[in-house]
Amino acid sequence: MNNRKIDWGFAQVWNKSLDEGRTEKPLLPRQKIWASEIGGPQIDRFLKMTAVPISNPPNPRSLRKFEAGNIWEAIIGYVLSRAGIFIDRHQWIQYQYPGLLPVSGKLDFEAGGKPDYEKSISLISKDFNWLPEFISKSTLKIVERLKKEYPDGLKNIILEIKSCSSFMFEKYEAEGKADPKHKLQAFHYLKCKNMPEAHIIYINKDDARLLEIGVFNPSPLEDVYKKDIEEMTGYIDRNERPSLQKPIVFDEDWKSFLANWKVGYSNYLTMLYGFKDQKEFDEKYKPITERFNRVLGRIEEGKDMTENNLEAIKEIEALGFNFESIKKSLKKGE
Predict the structure, then answer these.
(1) Quick one: pLDDT at residue 67?
(2) Which of 180, 34, 158 shows the shortest CA–CA distance to 88?
């Protein structure tokens, strides 16, 4: 058995450097909503906006996942730049309805315009020596396709880049829908710039697949966007703390009960809900949602309810869910 120790470790240096290189900004009271908060849990947003110290800061793994997303965003930026369709990046923009709090956000990319395709092809060819070959080849194919299909250029659109797990990617792909928060964030940029179209780009971190979902302006999405701002403005103006989130929710798209991510991922999980961490929250509520979902599965299969199922139905109703309405929604989804 070889017990020799390595002289120095690149992984050790890498990990320590990344952990030490990131600093969190202190919370300060603010009369402004961040675009990425729209659609999120109001109680958490209120506490952050009033500078209440968080009880559950992101752990190193969560921070690394965020930085991994930044790596993919940088790759997309390279492709846009080399393809000659890069317009702008990380532009801070703000919108404010009269009498309501302003909303501010930093868009990922604006892309479009009339590129010099030949120049792009020449630049990409020089990059083959240092970039991963598949990226250079893919970028070259993108330019060739754009040249063929859009010889006169492209209209400008906003691109919002989101990396995700295979599980979430397949969920978005199966539904053909983006996360509601992501749609509202993209709509904010459209509203600010008075532009008609944004695309949310989901990147599967496991296999590099991309999914693109459009967001448009004008659209009914503005009603949701404005209502959210109105409600948060009211809470801040009245200095009124919003209600806590329910630990279990029913997902209308997937027709299933879920442990509420707005609780599990809360930066105030311990302070508001008494859980040490997300793992402790999941250990309590995921078995309950699985039990509830077994009831729904038997209903969809046309099977009789067991005593355990009937007991679960009572618990579902005790939590405030309309079980008869949920049963009807299952039949509509057939």
Answers:
(1) 85
(2) 158
End-to-end CA distance of the chain: 60
Inter-residue long-range contacts of 243-250, CB under 8 Å, 24+ positions, other chains counted: 243/42, 243/43, 244/43, 244/272, 244/273, 245/41, 245/43, 246/319, 246/320, 247/273, 247/281, 247/284, 247/285, 248/285, 248/288, 248/289, 248/292, 248/319, 250/321, 250/326
For the stretch 111-131, pLDDT in tens is 999 999 999 998 888 776 667
Q: For residue range 261-307, what is the model confidence (pLDDT) as tens digits?
A: 999 999 999 999 999 999 999 999 999 999 999 999 999 999 999 99
Q: What count of other Cβ atoms lies within 10 Å of the Cβ of residue 326?
A: 21
21-30 contacts, C-beta under 8 A, 24 or more apart: 22/63, 22/67, 24/57, 27/51, 27/52, 27/53, 27/54
* CB of 68 closer than 8 Å to CB of 163: yes
DSSP 8-state assignment for residue 37: G
Going by the DSSP 8-state scheme, the letter that residue 83 receives in this structure is T
Query: What pTM value is reported for the model?
Result: 0.91
Ranges of each domain in the chain: 25-115+153-231, 244-332
Instruction: Please state whether beta strands 33-34 and 103-106 pair in parallel, antiparallel, or not at all (unpaired).
Output: parallel
Q: Which residues pair with 103 in a beta bridge?
A: 33, 95
> Is 3.90.320.10 the CATH number for 25-115+153-231?
yes
DSSP helix/strand/coil, 200: strand
Degrees (nearest 5) of the Cα angle 164, 166, 168?
Answer: 60
